[in-house]
Amino acid sequence: MKKVITFLLSLVMGCSYAQNTDSLAIRKIYNEALGNGKSYEWLRYLTKQIGPRLSGSAGAQKAVDWTKQVMEQQGFDRVFLQEVMVPHWVRGAKEEAFIRVEKQKINVPIAALGGSVATSPKGVEAGVIEVKSFPELRALGPDKVKGKIVFFNRPMDPTKINTFEAYGGAVDQRANGATEAAKLGAVGAIVRSMTNVHDDNPHTGGMRYGTGVALIPTAAISTNGADLLSKSLTENPGLTFYFKQNCESLPDAKSYNVVGELRGSEKPDEIIVVGGHLDSWDLAEGAHDDGSGCVQSIEVLRIMKALGIKPKRTIRAVMFMNEENGLRGGVKYADLAKQNNEKHIAAVESDEGGFTPRGFGIVGTPEQRAKVNPWKPLLVPYGLTDIGAGSGGADIGPLATLGTVLFGFKPDSQRYFDYHHTPVDRFETVSQRELELGAASMAALVYLLDQYGL
Amino acid sequence: MKKVITFLLSLVMGCSYAQNTDSLAIRKIYNEALGNGKSYEWLRYLTKQIGPRLSGSAGAQKAVDWTKQVMEQQGFDRVFLQEVMVPHWVRGAKEEAFIRVEKQKINVPIAALGGSVATSPKGVEAGVIEVKSFPELRALGPDKVKGKIVFFNRPMDPTKINTFEAYGGAVDQRANGATEAAKLGAVGAIVRSMTNVHDDNPHTGGMRYGTGVALIPTAAISTNGADLLSKSLTENPGLTFYFKQNCESLPDAKSYNVVGELRGSEKPDEIIVVGGHLDSWDLAEGAHDDGSGCVQSIEVLRIMKALGIKPKRTIRAVMFMNEENGLRGGVKYADLAKQNNEKHIAAVESDEGGFTPRGFGIVGTPEQRAKVNPWKPLLVPYGLTDIGAGSGGADIGPLATLGTVLFGFKPDSQRYFDYHHTPVDRFETVSQRELELGAASMAALVYLLDQYGL
């Protein structure tokens, strides 16, 4: 009996010893991030010195060179590039747009959606059909839509607590609106910006043309512009809308994912990825989307090195290229992992902004998710209360087919779409503490993943 | 046996019915706040049209008149004022300060602390003793301190996750620094601003003189200014510091708490308070501190009315006067409650900014706190995961002696001290969604307090 008690006691003590060690390690991670953090100054450089970095642009190449250099300077065990061909879309001269009511022209702010074709050099002008959904559009039929500009004006639902859910409920208009409009013979598609705020910033973003339909030009209009257009249509259903945009798709360009690595001391063949995407929209500094995720990922490795944590497994910080308009970097990363027979046990992505951490969404089997449960009490003191089934991240998504468990870093979502894909997504909107807490939260999760696997 | 089962079943069903009713009511509260909220536009008026409103100022009086009018327009059952005499401190002309190293003068940004005396009209100039704590100061003794300016330079600890904890660990310097310095014969006290950011804004705030010591002038210096002064002292220990301030304490002024009320339909004598403080520092628009708490409190009552919720108990929105430099409004409110034999079962205060809600701190007995446990699952879907023993709020504090259970609204704390007590605490730093979510969270708690009591 005594032996049994001693054995049980040693189990309990061993368990609490491990918990205590982990608790102290995580406390040190947060202290390092908040006391000696580098992510904020890195973000300043990436946004203010490099700035916009859409795939294929000179800015994107500068960002590749610079993040490689930063990771080399940190003395990571290995820093390397993964070549990837990316779409190369350019906006050209700034767009013009106005509502014409009789002899009056009222200018409104628009921005071509990424991937859209240009209008003719003279622009396009036509009557406007306002709809809130694709079924509503289809019900109108080709007779009413042909030769018109379709105006998609369904707002993000402000009553959704998580703004990403509201975004998910509206973004079909941006992604597929032009295609649905073209099917019925429309000559253009104007889409209400994906944001809850009422302002004058058109929010750009990706769109795709379906096969077998005419390629019609499509643009985002600011929410204030959308409200004005809607009101004007009520008063003057016969008004016309004019817009002119000068964008084009050039041949694919050569670019890179940038990878930094700390080699595992015990199980170097098991890889844990932590990443963000390096490209941004051409209009934005890309501070929250996704400069934050990039500098936080590098910071995770820096923190581990600074604290003398020698990971058992191999930890990689990955700056993925081309999340915004192609996902080629994420696909290439997973392709290479498969080709090289690499075993990726987990991947963590930060692509929801540099805001206060709330938790992690997990994509994995119920058994894999259950593995995380004992870690939760270690993370709650840092505000990480929302950990469970959820979404991972676009760039790490392709790794799922390799059996990798995906973790999407979930910061507070309230302000993200105030800035998203506009010039307002700039360094000044990022709180140093919020950014650093995010980096620390990711480092704490990576530390636990490294200690215990999945 | 069958009867027992039926009885138990009816209990369970009754219970889940109530939970379901509450869940729907709370969902409607959030929908109203996020879809038709008024708090943001009210805050715009309070900060942009009225602006700074330190106790005794014309701004404070305007804020009293305007919030009374807003609540009257909302058709609350009763709106009334509670007269209270408040301290009337004025800053006078803007402060001047510089570091003098040999013939060089380097200007630094300072702001007199609220309650401080002026310097002589010519200002004060003296050598500087830098300390991090009162024990360190006392160890120096009068010989080293006499005739000097004491420079309190202990920063807020950036590794504290909750910034209010870091504030609590540094604010003794601001509150009592002048007194401790004067005890040893110092001629002035300069205090590092209470913030984690490195910037050029001196953060003012309240201070008190101890009895029986000389009243020496005291000011906050910006964190950048503090770092510069510290560095300069290392290089030139013999440097002098000059400052001039022109503040004075005028006779107490007449002012008011502003109270709006929805009368209870079943237990009108049981009162639930929801409030914030109406005064702000003279340098600030007081957007987060505490315009947010005021407009959120009015919004709680507006939401209930808009949804047709007829409270069982009496619900009061209270705009307390003079939290910043006297707490006279909070004290007066509790005095009148006692005098009028009013039964205040609960009080909720919002005075930690208009940021994303995280929970509520509770001041009450363990039994009272346990009463709240069944409500937690109703609030978690809205991100309110941090509900438990904590602090209430300065203004509602005096109600504790009447047995009132206090609830301090806890929004995310990361950005609060970036703005606190400076001109940066302006409307533009408030996110509409974050503000509205706060109002909804307070309304949800008030709804549950009203339904179930404590």
Explain this structure to me?
- Two copies of one chain form a homodimer.
- The first copy, chain A, is α/β, with parallel strands linked by helices and 454 residues long.
- Chain A folds into two domains: 27-89 and 251-452, 3-Layer(aba) Sandwich (Aminopeptidase); 93-246, Glucose Oxidase, domain 1.
- Chain A has helices spanning 2-36, 39-50, 58-73, 134-145, 163-168, 172-183, 223-235, 287-306, 328-339, 366-372, 376-379, 416-419, 432-452, and strands at 78-90, 96-101, 104-107, 110-112, 124-131, 149-152, 188-192, 218-221, 240-244, 248-262, 267-277, 313-320, 343-349, 357-363, 386-389, 405-411.
- Chain A has an eight-stranded mixed beta sheet with strand order 1-10-12-11-13-16-14-15, with helices on both faces.
- In chain A, helix 1 packs antiparallel against helix 13 (432-452).
- The radius of gyration of chain A is 24 Å and the shape is elongated.
- Chains A, B: Keywords: Carboxypeptidase, Endoplasmic reticulum, Glycoprotein, Golgi apparatus, Hydrolase, Lysosome, Metal-binding, Metalloprotease, Protease, Secreted, Signal, Zinc, Zymogen.
- Chains A, B: Residues 257-442 form the Peptidase M28 domain.
- Chains A, B: Homodimer. The monomeric form is inactive while the homodimer is active.
